Prior knowledge:
Blueprint lengths: L14 H14 L5 E5 L2 E7 L2 E5 L3 E9 L4 E8 L3 H18 L4 H6 L4
Antiparallel strand pairs: 1-2, 2-3, 3-4, 4-5
Helix pairs in contact: 1-2
Amino acid sequence: MATRAPRPQLAGVSPIVAADQLRQALAQEGIAADVHDGYGLALVSVWVDLVVWSDGLRFWWRVGWNGEHSRPVYAWHPSADPTRAGRRVALRYADLRATHPLSEAVAGAYPWV
């Protein structure tokens, strides 16, 4: 089986470094998140329906659905500014927390969330 060559980086940082910087920015906003790496991209898992992707140059996340074209709508932000990206993701997080609260069972098992 052939081994996949790493994806070349342009003028950004590695995807995992960018994702970890975003995770740290979210922590400053009081939001816990997990970072995952693979296939030349990194993912920041934040909440139900909120995953932020990074290729090292930018972050992007789903913000809605375009019914006319039957496809998701995404927001994006340059990875060079993880603090501001974190604030924007935090706004989406607050919206999703209001519409997707934890179930009673999960909230009881994880009272710190």
